[in-house]
Amino acid sequence: MIHDPDFKDERIPCPYDPNHTVWKKDLNQHLKKCNHKPKERTESWFNLDFNTHLKGTEDFVFEDIDEENDDDKLMEKYISILKQMSFEPLQYKIYQHEGLESRLNEKSNQKHPIQQNSIIANLDKMGLLNESFLFLEFGCGKGELSRYLNQCILQQNPSNSSTYGFGLIDRGKNRLKADSKIISDCDAVELTPQVKRSKIDIKDLNLSEFISDLQVNKVVGISKHLCGAATDLTLKSILNSTILEQDQFGGVLIAMCCRHACSLEQLLPQSKKYLYDKGFKTVKSFKILKKLVSWAVDKKTETQQNGLSFEEREEIGLTARRLIDESRVHALRSILGEQYKVEIFCLIP
Q1: Which one, of 282, 322, 304, lies nearest residue 63 by Cα?
Q2: Are the CB atoms for 12 and 22 separated by under 8 Å?
Q3: CA terminus-to-terminus distance, the chain
Q4: What are the pLDDT digits (tens) for 171-206?
Q5: What fold is seen in the domain 107-257?
Q6: In the chain, where do the E strands start and end?
Q7: Mean pLDDT over residues 287-295, rounded?
Q8: Rounded CA separation 300/283 (Å)
Q9: pLDDT digit string (tens) for 81-133?
Q10: Which residues contact 246 (CB under 8 A, 6 or more apart)?
């Protein structure tokens, strides 16, 4: 074997995609041809980091340093704060729409159909299942929720409407998209929906521009799975748009998840203030809160952790999760006032 013992080059993560590495000396050349190099965006609705702040509102800044440096003592401190909190039990609103009975019957895995069904049925109960509305599905994936919502509207013998349609928003690449199926499902009726998809991160979405070339009566936001910070970015995208001031906002229904993946930076300022007033005043306290949230979904074990049984940890995790959710409810009520009803409830058992 022959090699240069003085060779000291190193491999570093690619700035475009840290999942692969490159030799440091070859970085500049690699960046020119990397398959993960961001494509230049030309869409009018792409605005980098547009929703990382709430327009016209000063951000609320957490304190940088906690008065206690010991991690175990900090954990005890914030567990104690959560133990003193109590919230009213959430109401269960588990409904079914008859338009999805066949889907429930044909699927052996009932998890997703049940959730889709309950979301659509709740929209119906709220009067938001209307053939004149534009439905925006955030984090849409293939767009299945929109497709089944469309099928339920078709069950209502809808009249033709030029303002009916779907906006599909997702930052990922998706195979077997439902976009064309939404249109083909309407072949037997006069109703022809507008369907527009954009592969974009919600943080960069100028919603007003996205719908500017669509005919719009009312806009309804929907999502079956918005992970962590994506929920807060979606709320900001709606609040940063013109649909509220132009009386185009019909409502929004989001199935929240993955609070452990929330970002302090992306929370609404009013959410941050709510958490601050509840005793979570520092950046580190929010990191601990996210860690405690994960206890709500931990696998059951007989061993103790932090001197707590599984049942005690689960209860603390559920309280931590509820605290983050309630901060969002508080923020929206503070911003929207009494014009809109803001509520949180359980869609599934």
Answers
A1: 282
A2: yes
A3: 64
A4: 988 889 999 999 999 999 989 999 999 999 999 999
A5: Rossmann fold (3.40.50)
A6: 11-13, 21-23, 133-138, 165-170, 194-199, 218-227, 249-257
A7: 95
A8: 29
A9: 999 999 999 999 999 998 887 776 666 667 788 899 999 999 999 999 999 99
A10: none
Alpha carbon distances (Å) from 58 to 71, 242, 265, 269, 345: 31, 19, 13, 7, 30
Q: Do the bridges between strand 218-227 and strand 249-257 make them parallel or antiparallel, or are there none, so unpaired?
A: parallel
If we measure between CA atoms, which residue out of 216, 220, 223 comes closest to residue 194? Answer: 216
Beta bridge partners of 346: 92
CA neighbor of 129 nearest in space, from 105, 160, 107, 151: 151
What is the rounded distance in angstroms from the CA atom of residue 65 to the CA atom of residue 285? 9
Q: How far apart are CA 31 and CA 216, in angstroms?
A: 42
Contact 219, 88 (CB under 8 A): no
Total residues found in the chain within this entry: 349
- Tokens 């000396």 sit on residue: 25
> What average pLDDT is seen over the chain?
92
**Per-residue tokens: 66:** 């906690």
Per-position b or e across 124-148, b if 16+ CB within 10 A of its CB = beeebbbbbbbbbbbbbbbbbbbbb
Split at pLDDT 50, 70, 90, the class of 48 is very high
Q: Is 49 left (phi over 0), alpha (psi -120 to 50) or beta?
A: left
Domain boundaries, the chain: 9-38, 58-84+261-335, 107-257
Strand bridging mode 11-13 / 218-227? unpaired
pLDDT the model gives residue 107: 64
pLDDT, residue 45, reads: 98
Burial class (CB within 10 angstroms; exposed 0-12, middle 13-18, buried 19+) of 14:
middle
- Residue 339 gets which letter from DSSP? S
Can you give the pTM of this predicted structure?
Answer: 0.88
Name the least confident of 16-30, 133-147, 318-332. 16-30
Torsion of CA 162, 200, 152, 244, to 10 degrees: -60
- DSSP-derived letter for residue 38 is P
